[in-house]
Amino acid sequence: MEKIKIITDSTLDLPAELIREKDIEVLPLLINFGEESYLDGIEITTKEMIDKIDATGVLPTTAQVTPNRFEKSFKKYLDEGYKIVALTLSSDMSGTYQSACIAKDMLESDDIIVIDSRNVTSGLGLLVLKACELRDKGLGIKEIEEGILKAIPKVKCSLNFESLENLVRGGRLSKTAGTIGSVLGLRLILEIKDGKMSVKDKVRGSKKALKKLVSDFESTDVDFDSPIVLLELLNEDVYQGLKIYFQEKNINYIDAKVGCTVGIHSGIKPCGIFFFEK
């Protein structure tokens, strides 16, 4: 059986203990506060980032994983006798995928597979877990690639953004729309579509947001044999409602928190569900 290393980036938003258990190598993106840069999840946590934003009033930017960092990681594992499957966040959201492809070309190795997940946050996380499952079944890197490419269109999510502030500050939503949305108490319901975050609905208040997330989940032919992720950051109302729903339905799920990179754009109160459809 081949020795295979699964490598990804820090936008996968899965619990650290699960990442260790599955032996996943995570390369962090950079979080930039002006001239100060921090490795996502290593040199700065989400809480520390939020505190720094509050203290400075500065919304940080992010920077992709560089080709050199991918090359260094790839070479390390190739030298140890591994073959590599690298999955990155969507190429429409970051240059990280292109960096991984450049690193593969630098090493001129057929033992590296690079996959554009067309996803981000726990959608990427689900695909990484799928790659680990296929690896543990003894499949080779080409077979894992085939399995992941088939799984990508089946990743579904419904994600509630309670705060519009960071979307406005990051230039992804106009100030006028953000002000109106905040005054009306609007919550954006987003999905990942064609490799990008897309608004699929707007609701007013956390109760309607919870109802919409549950409705989206129940209207999909969910693959309950695959992991389901409940993702949140400081959104107790919707989060607790989803927890109660899953418990009442006896649905197992992975409890995950939003990381720094995703949190910069989502604001402080995102909450949602990621899953595979059959």
Automatic annotation (TrEMBL):
Keywords: Lipid-binding
Pfam family, one: DegV
A GO MF term: lipid binding
InterPro entries: DegV, DegV_C, DegV_domain_contain
Gene3D superfamilies: 3.30.1180.10, 3.40.50.10170
Keyword Cell inner membrane: no
Record-linked NCBIfam families: DegV
Protein's name in the database: DegV family protein
Organism: Clostridium lentum
